[in-house]
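Quick one:
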Amino acid sequence: METYVFVFFGAALVAQMATPYVARLARLLKLTDAPGPRKVHRHPIPRVGGIAIVAATLAMVVPVLMLDNVTGQAFRRIRAEIVVLLAASVFMFAVGLVDDIRGLTGKAKFFSIMLAATAVYAVGGRIDSIGLDGVFEWELGWLSLPLTILWIATVTVAMNFIDGLDGLAAGIAAVACGLIALFAFYTGQTVMGVLMLALLGSLVGFLFFNFNPAKIFMGDCGSMFLGFTIAAGSVVCTATTATLTGLALPAAALGVPLVDAVFTIIRRRVLDRRSMFSAERGHIHHRLLDAGLNHRRAVYAIYGMTLLGAGTGVLMLLMRQEATLYLLLGAFTGLLVLFHLVGSARLRETLGAMRRNSAIAQQVKAERQIFEDMQLQIRVAHTFDEWWDTLCAMADAMEFDHLALVAPGSERASAMTVWRRENVRLSPDDVVRLMMPLGHGRDLHGPRLDVAVRPLLPMETIGRRMMLFGRLLDEFTYQAALDLPVAARTSAAPAAVEQPSVQAPTPADSEALPAAKRSNSDSAQSMGLT
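Output:
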């Protein structure tokens, strides 16, 4: 017992002593977090407080594990798992520190998490089976690796996401560490209990400077270290006990960041169609602030949710095994209701966005097929007119309304070559127009292609189709087309391409596809744009 008390209070004391020095160093090196649209602070705050957390944790854990007592003997039995876990946690701290100092992409950080999680898995820290005594037993088999990595990555990312208010991430992590330590001692896992007590003590010491108004932030170096250590530690506990409770306890305590992470990913990827790592202001703590709570009350509200989850975890240890699953489901159901009430769980909007995204994906696929068909068609153009006919077919397939090739001084087109969708007459105020320069140096006063389309489709769709049309022009440029021979043009429509869904226009009269020798003024009038 003396060892456990020494580890906890020793870590708290070291963190409390080290944090002010870390803050001074951060200010000296200008490692501060500046105010911004997503931030709730108004002045630059040092952002590498995770250094103090890691230093305090390791300062207590490493010497204690070297002792020749019960804890030291237990450590030597699982030396590989603990050494790799600590090394991987320090690695995640280093990745976060680089992100705090220089900045890393979300993909780079996620790859680092997967790499560290794989290392823990390789030495036996894995979820091989999930079961409840006397109820069921599920051997995961080949699913063990992806589920282990998924769990560790999810908790690490969730802890990083929730670090948005003073003292929020540190307080939630402290509750989770206390619960895992309780479970570790309950199941005879002394080493893991010591590690979680050291982490808990360092968080308590750090909170003296991190609670509102914060004098220092833990930064990504702190949140990634915390999230990974808690996740990997719970996996090691699960590997030893092989029961659902080993994961259910930390899941209950980390319910708020876990649910928030899931809805954040859905919001960014499905609703906003952005990267899951892109910054925004939609987390549960932002919603509480928008609802009128001040900074401290928002943190207290989330603390309350976390303590309720932790209480559920304690009940899981005391009640019969079959009740564990029902308690866990009940806890997460309650969280879902709370997230819905504050506006973070936008279920109806998500379903609509999923249908919208599916339609957009099908549309993009169809547009790409059209482009690829036209790409093949223009590559085999043998005359200038075949090149122009392919552009007209592309314009028709992309639902453009007018296409005009303006070539001042060109022997090929002394005025303008025009294609117009049948029975469509527009004024300049009715269309979205784009001028694509075709000559050397992209001079807008030289040869150009004028494209006009009615804004009946979303601007995103119009822009995407314009981009594909530009790619087609780059595929076979106007200068290359000038080197082709001229075929005798008629007022007939250009030949249809092989793809049945991409038909060339079939105008009712010669005005829809005039000869290349028509004058500028006559062609402009025929487009209805003058």
